[in-house]
Amino acid sequence: KPKLVGITGGIGSGKSTVAKIFEILGIPVYYADDRAKSLMNHDSGLKKQIIQEFGEESYTSEGDLNRKYLASTVFSDPEKVKKINSLVHPAVGRDFEIWASSQSTPYVLKEAALIFETGGEKKVDAVINVSSPLKIRVNRVLMRDPHRSLEQINQIIDQQIPDEDKNERADFVIKNTENKMLIPQVLEIHQKLQS
Ligand code: ATP
């Protein structure tokens, strides 16, 4: 069974970019946010729970998640956000374990923005934090997502554990600043995780 390794980092830190380098080395990566969205659309057990909690309007007549409805009713209410997370997180956790056990590499990665925030570090053998200065992160996200305002980005940052705390709690830190090269850092960790 492969070792389970989480890869996290605040918004705009570059965790997806780093995860893609691991993929080039042949390491399978589970993208938790994408999988969560997919499970909300296709996992019948999870869909049933969401409908039970938030009503039939949660899905369109075609059976797709009704994002507009959820955005207006759920995502504006912190208690309801907690509730939907408490349904989605265990479903993602189960899905990840099944996915991981079908892989045959020495280790696999789970890429997620929130690992320490959700206690997910207890479910993996090691965590990598991708760390970048706040100002660079904000600029990257403004460039990548022109539809997002500075205010929206800061709101997301406020919901995440500060980078310095995550560096202390992580087993490995990858520094993704302008003058740091990613590939040598990835190779060093890759070697350690294979032994
Ligand atoms: P999110 O949490 O929002 O998904 P993320 O941590 O996955 O963000 P990425 O999407 O990997 O971050 O990176 C954010 C943006 O910054 C992307 O457009 C990416 O191409 C760019 N970027 C990341 N690292 C670097 C780098 N070292 N040099 C140049 N551009 C970079």
Automatic annotation (TrEMBL):
Q: Name its species.
A: Algoriphagus ornithinivorans
Please give the GO cellular component terms listed in this UniProt entry: cytoplasm
Broad class of the protein's primary localization: cytoplasm
Report the protein name in the record: Dephospho-CoA kinase
Q: Pfam families, per this entry? A: CoaE (PF01121)
Per the record, the pathway is: Cofactor biosynthesis; coenzyme A biosynthesis; CoA from (R)-pantothenate: step 5/5
- Report the sequence similarity comment from the record: Belongs to the CoaE family.
Q: Which GO terms describe its molecular function?
A: ATP binding; dephospho-CoA kinase activity
Q: Which residues bind ATP?
A: 12-17
